[in-house]
Design brief:
8 helices; 21% helix; 361 residues; 5-stranded antiparallel β-sheet; 6-stranded mixed β-sheet; alpha+beta
Length: 361
Amino acid sequence: MTVGDGLQARLTLARADFQLDVALELPAGQVSALFGPSGSGKTSCLRAIAGLERAARGSVVVNGEVWQDDARKLLVPVHQRALGYVFQDARLFSHLNVADNLAFGMRRLPPAQRRVSLDQAVALLGISHLTQRKPDSLSGGERQRVCIARALATSPRILLMDEPLAALDAARKAEILPYLEQLHRELAMTVVYVSHAPDEVARLADHLVLLDRGKVLAAGPTADMLTRLDLPLAHGDGAAAVLVATVIGHEAAYHLSVARFGGGELNIPRQTAAIGQSLRIRVQARDVSLSLLRPSGTSILNILPARVLTLSPDSPGQVMVQLDAGGCTLLARITEKSAHGLALVPGVAVFAQIKGVAILG
């Protein structure tokens, strides 16, 4: 990161039962996730960046513009910061229709400074058919899409999102995630995304900051962070690796797509992505089994040559195996007995077997 790009923040916030003390350096034009359990300081950190936590001390610089610098006694008011904020609960004006809610978000921005048009925000979130409706007539997913469009309509330098999907059920969450991915692809906007859901982070975030009790435990590219065996993210039943792959074909008869990444080709559930389009693939460690010989006569479609990088104890009787597959990192969660029987040690060549139906695109 060059000086002035993205977000740099050094923030402290003292509460009776909580102490936030973080230093952040987040890349420009990417989605950075603040991830951690409840009480780790995610929302407090986001609010401090926005200037909503007036007791927060330190500095905040966005794309070279100083929003806070206590050493210079500088504090830009919230309404003068070029940011968009999406809360967990949809905060729309119930007496206004969708079009008027969106227009309200643009009022404080002179036309000459508008980098995202209202039409563009509406198109990106797929809400053109909702503009004349009142918020009370919308589903939870539709309301959140309107909130995101309203935030974008202010042409923010940075978009802050505080668990925007947490209040949605699985169906509404699945409905809105593709819009967030499209927003990321088309706008390349700097986004700080708060979440405690690993699947959201894996699907959306380029950069991951792991928070614990108000401190930064680790930070880096999401794919690396998810597979670091010295971090809690790479352990337990939800551990998973993220692969960036390119769609190279579709098998309509079998409702499958084929994607290529550094370690080979994968058969995955049918995707809407066009051939040549890049997508992220989430492979859960519990869905990866290992063999010393290439299996034959098996129903498993994805068999990849790999090499053991390291092993780490997981839950009782379980071992997490970190694998190198063509320069990409995978995780396999297997029993201690299996690891012993295969005599797995760093450097051993194996074949990783992954069920096609288990892969999350």
